[in-house]
Design goal:
- The structure holds two protein chains of two kinds.
- In chain A, strand 7 and strand 8 form a beta hairpin.
- Helices cover 0% and strands 52% of the residues of chain A.
- Chain A is built from no helices and eleven strands.
- In chain A, strands 2, 4, 5, 6, 9, 10 and 11 form a seven-stranded mixed β-sheet that branches. Chain A has a four-stranded antiparallel β-sheet with strand order 1-3-8-7, with no helix packed on it.
- By secondary structure, chain B is an all-beta fold.
- In chain B, strands 2, 4, 5, 9, 10 and 11 form a six-stranded mixed β-sheet that branches.
- The chains are: A mainly beta, B mainly beta.
- At the A-B interface, strand 5, strand 9 and strand 10 of A face strand 4, strand 5 and strand 9 of B.
């Protein structure tokens, strides 16, 4: 089945130690998004790619970076994770800007 | 910024009962999406709505895009235990960005 796949499902990292989360899609969608979801809250958009064009949300910390080497893969890099970055990180894709978004299962990141 | 008011915040119902939840906004949206999220999982798309007044069903779920384009509701009929989870509405205006409601936590007692 066509899917949005995130790896790993669970990640524990030390305070200040760089971490990379990955997302792959078999939907051949143009747009890929990264969201952060903290406990009992709605997902919050960090940034998105439309093809190779990167779009950062104004309030996304500089600590968060992203790479999209090809259509299928997108990475979220957290350069120096803080305790407040503990959250579920969700990857989503959509065919074009206005179409529905499909989410992966998420990566639960814990910073200790 | 755009705000979506989703209500109720939580619901506790008996199996077999019908459920209704809604989202309202002061802004006009072009698209309304309803998602369900189970604990520790990503949101799963339930229903997408693209036209004002549109009424769409997916099994026991029915959602409507409000005529004013500022609201949407989701109904679940004859609830079952596996309906438990958090339901999110999300609206999109003319750009790419989805604005999410704060979610409705549904608990179904067998």
């Amino acid at each position: 089945d066509a899917m949005v796949i995130q790896n790993p499902r669970y990640q524990v990292t030390q305070f200040g130690k760089p971490v990379t989360l990955s997302c792959s899609q078999t939907l051949n969608h143009n747009v890929m998004y990264w969201y952060q979801q903290k406990s009992s809250q709605a997902p919050k958009l960090l940034f998105h790619y439309y093809d190779k064009d990167f779009n950062n949300e104004a309030d996304t910390p500089d600590n968060f970076q992203s790479r999209r080497p090809n259509t299928s893969f997108c990475f979220l890099d957290i350069r120096s994770p803080g305790l407040g970055d503990t959250a579920m990180y969700l990857c989503a894709t959509s065919r074009v800007m206005g179409s529905e978004a499909f989410f992966g299962q998420g990566t639960r990141l814990t910073v200790v | 910024g755009q705000q979506l008011n989703q209500s109720p915040q939580s619901m506790f119902i008996q199996e077999g009962e019908d459920v209704s939840m809604n989202c309202t906004s002061s802004s006009i949206f072009n698209t309304w999406l309803w998602y369900k999220q189970d604990p520790g999982e990503g949101p799963v798309l339930l229903i997408a709505l693209y036209k004002a007044g549109e009424l769409t069903s997916n099994g026991r779920l029915t959602a409507q895009f409000g005529i004013t384009r500022k609201d949407s509701f989701l109904n679940i009929s004859a609830s079952i235990p596996s309906d438990v989870g958090i339901y999110f509405c999300a609206g999109r205006r003319s750009n790419y960005k989805l604005t999410f409601g704060k979610g409705t936590l549904l608990t179904v007692n067998p």
